[in-house]
Amino acid sequence: MNQRVVVLLSGGLDSATVLYQAKAAGYDCYALSFDYGQRHRRELQAAQAIAQRAGVIQHEIVPLVLGRWGGSALTQRDLDLPRHRLPAEMNQGIPITYVPARNTIFLSFALAWAEVLGAVRVYIGANALDYSGYPDCREDYLAAMQQVYTLGTKQGREGQPILLTAPLLHLHKADIIRLGQTLGVPWELTWSCYRGEEIACGVCDSCILRRAGFREAGITDPLPYAVTEGTPHV
């Protein structure tokens, strides 16, 4: 039996690329997604489709109550999502799309499942370059969580800590897309838009970064958008 890993799978570009990296490395992959009341629950359909295409051993979708509490434009619908922002603007402060403690919660669930499975790693598609405003996507945060993984588990205390692995941490979106292309990531199954409608909006931060990444990578994005590039701001 190959070694096992748990992969946090949102359904977006980054997490799909990480899953395919883990698969290419020969690991038995277990995928973990969360239904936390996000307005873009459409991403869970993408996660299911990607997990099935990748042939993961098991895919779990865990329900959480984060949406009930609000505190983010991703979980509180009376807060407006940022639109038409330039990438440089997205790195100025912590954005309203930050969900309080989300990655800490996700990584804790992943750690628990990984220890039950006897897994050697937990993979996360965290990226510190395109979303440097998120406090839980930074290198120092992940280093602190590795300490939790080591000190807070039986496996860690016995000298076999589960490794928290964030291979995309220092890659720009175009580099991630180029990497995913070599790994055979099915881009047509991925979902990035924060609005969560049937067609991606094309103007939220996530759509803008995705489109810029594909353009810079010289690869065609297979997803349609409600607002095409060059369309006046609305």
Q: Could you estimate the helical fraction of the residues in percent?
A: 25-40%
Number of domains: 1
How many helices?
9
Coarse morphology? globular
Question: Might you state the CATH topology name?
Answer: Rossmann fold
> Regarding CATH, which class?
Alpha Beta
Total count of strands? 5
Stretches where pLDDT is under 50 for at least 5 consecutive residues are 230-234
What distance separates the N and C termini? 54 Å
Order of strands in the sheet with most strands: 3-2-1-4-5
Description:
With 234 residues, this protein is of the alpha/beta class. Helices cover 38% and strands 11% of the residues. It has a single domain, classed as HUPs (Rossmann fold, 3-Layer(aba) Sandwich). A five-stranded parallel sheet has the order 3-2-1-4-5, with helices on both faces. Helix 1 crosses helix 8 and helix 8 crosses helix 9. The protein starts with a strand and ends in a 17-residue tail after the last helix. The C terminus is likely disordered.
